[in-house]
């Protein structure tokens, strides 16, 4: 099977990227709904409708309405959903899903040109540049979020039953991928320039 053009490996990858694009949007929607739902729970706790133990664990009761129209829901929850746990998790999820959306979106445009048989377009160098910059931002964000969460837990303490591991692991494969993409972006930029010069000469 040929690498470029219609019916090629590039076209198969393009289909996979389209599926990943949809899955990532669904995941982002899930994070947004989760954040909205958690906000409603916090509002319910503030209004006295929801027992705060729903987030810290144990038995409790959710009451909606007033007078004889109360709606009661009892629960027995192991806990672990307090805001120092949930909010950083939602932030981490949002940052990495948005980063993945940017990367997959640029890869889709890149593979569109591969499928059309025109790999050395000037915009492909831009796509690769955006991808490595996004990867760099995501990797730096990982360290910053980890440091912020560690500082948060140091200030407010770990929630009951929660555990945290803040070992800094430098992912050499990610940094190597970024370096390779920097080089590839320049290769594509130079290839596009040479192609344009060749077309002008002809």
Care to describe what's here?
- The protein is elongated, with a radius of gyration of 24 Å.
- It has 202 residues and is mainly α.
- The model is unreliable at 64-71 (pLDDT under 50).
- It has one domain (9-50, 80-201).
- Strands 1-2 form a two-stranded antiparallel ribbon.
- It contains 5 helices and 2 strands, in the order ααββααα.
- The protein starts with 8 loop residues before the first helix and ends with a helix.
- It has helices at residues 9-47, 53-56, 83-115, 122-156, 172-201; strands spanning 58-64, 71-77.
- Helix 3 packs antiparallel against helix 4.
Give me the secondary-structure category: mainly alpha
**H-E order:** HHEEHHH
**Segments where pLDDT lies below 50 for 5+ residues?**
64-71
Helix content: 55-70%
Notable features of this structure?
202 residues, mainly alpha
Topology (elements, then pairings):
Blueprint: H1 9-47, H2 53-56, E1 58-64, E2 71-77, H3 83-115, H4 122-156, H5 172-201
Antiparallel strand pairs: 1-2
Helix pairs in contact: 1-3, 3-4, 4-5
Structure, briefly:
This protein has 202 residues and is mainly alpha-helical.
């Amino acid at each position: 099977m040929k690498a470029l053009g219609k019916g090629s490996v590039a076209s198969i990858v393009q289909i996979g990227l389209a599926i990943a694009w949809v899955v990532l949007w669904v995941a982002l929607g899930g994070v947004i709904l989760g954040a909205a739902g958690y906000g409603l729970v916090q509002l319910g706790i503030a209004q006295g409708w929801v027992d705060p133990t729903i987030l810290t664990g144990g038995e409790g009761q959710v009451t909606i309405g007033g007078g004889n129209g109360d709606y009661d829901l009892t629960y027995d929850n192991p806990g672990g959903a307090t805001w120092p746990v949930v909010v950083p998790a939602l932030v981490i999820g949002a940052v990495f899903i948005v980063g993945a959306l940017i990367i997959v979106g640029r890869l889709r445009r890149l593979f569109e040109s591969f499928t059309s048989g025109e790999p050395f377009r000037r915009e492909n160098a831009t796509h690769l540049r955006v991808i490595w910059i996004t990867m760099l931002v995501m990797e730096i964000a990982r360290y910053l979020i980890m440091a912020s969460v560690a500082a948060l837990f140091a200030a407010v303490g770990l929630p009951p039953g929660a555990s945290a591991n803040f070992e800094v692991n430098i992912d050499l494969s990610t940094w190597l991928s970024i370096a390779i993409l920097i080089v590839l972006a320049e290769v594509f930029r130079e290839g596009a320039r040479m192609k344009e010069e060749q077309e002008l000469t002809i």
